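Good morning N.,

You mentioned wanting to compare the apo and holo forms, so I went ahead and generated the holo version with pyridoxal-5'-phosphate. This is what I fed in:
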Amino acid sequence: MTPRHHHHGGPLSHAGTGPHPSTLAVTAGRPAHNPGSPVNVPVYLNSIFLPGNGAEYGRVENPTWLAFEDAVGALEGGTAVSFASGMAAVAAAIEMLPVGGVVVAPSDCYHGVRLLLADLAERRRIETRLVDISDVRATLDRCVGADLLWIESPTNPLMKVADISVLSKDAHALGVEVAVDNTLATPLLQRPLELGADLAVHSVTKLLGGHSDLLMGVAVVRDQELADHLRQRRALHGGTPGLMEAFLALRGLRTLHLRVQHASASAAELARRLGRHPGVHRVRYPQLAASSAALDLAVSGETGGTLLSFEVAGGAEEADAVCAATQLIVHGTSLGGVETLIDRRGRWPLEKETPPSLLRLSVGCEYVEDLWQDIDQALTTAVPRR
Ligand SMILES: *Cc1c(COP(=O)(O)O)cnc(C)c1O
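and this is what came out, ligand included:
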């Protein structure tokens, strides 16, 4: 190992040659080092560009998007195409299926994706088969005759982990393409393209942006023809990212490694303590797939990302009371920002598989002892000792 492989307390790892992902997060997508060049690619607030050098119209291309795409592409190991939201990226990927195409997807994948698949199935555009993505054999059984395997790993809030390498290899043998929603893991903990997937998507809104101040999405592929297809979907459907959003997303991405490292360490510590708390019935905090390019610490059991779920001893009422009793931690939906968020997922109509007392904790960048103090006092207030 070269010195740059050594990390102290962080979840990042690095298998390849070239700069470490932490360095790429900081350096990729910068203007060339020329005298007088700006250090950051500016916000190009332009809908038109003069002929002679690339696209002339802003729905097709913008240098501010390209800077963000360069950085994400470097981190995921592919070509990135950015979109107006995570759902716009997902929709562009799904849209490439032929009419009547068959998608195999996790029964507990992101609810927006489930709604989209259900909507398309209802209109006979595609056929959808829902599976337990942690069950390799059952998933592959359902892949026979399918066109696309849609993986999300880990899922949330149930925290199911898929074996992306095995699923990709065996799905490909069946002629099925593989896409991975990598929003939760980020390319620092899991790189789906290296594990054999054809496409990775992100809700940039979450960890890549990281500050709960924008909506954006991105799809990343190795195949250039596939990248062209995605750009074509974007130009035809108009699901283009805003320019301020692209600028802010890249600014957020610059500290992705620091945020993921800090929040993962805190999440692991909180998961351990919650597991011993009398007000808690069960904790879900997965190790990311051991087969993943993920990383020294993930594999050695030190970290499993920035998100965890726990079931409060009691029911929905006690769990709601915990959310109401937190003072530092914000009660709200979404995940991946610098601020720690708590939410009872069972309150959402589509979370039918979710236990009623389950709380999802998206761990942010506050000091871990302050977070623990808040959770502990909220549990003590809300869950009566039995
Ligand atoms: C939020 C989210 C999406 C959708 O992204 P938007 O940016 O909200 O459109 C997709 N997948 C996962 C896992 C998400 O958390």
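The pocket of pyridoxal-5'-phosphate is lined by residues 85-87, 110, 112, 152, 181, 183-184, 203, 205-206, 215, 217 (CB under 6 Å).

Happy to go through it together on a call whenever suits you.

Best,
F.
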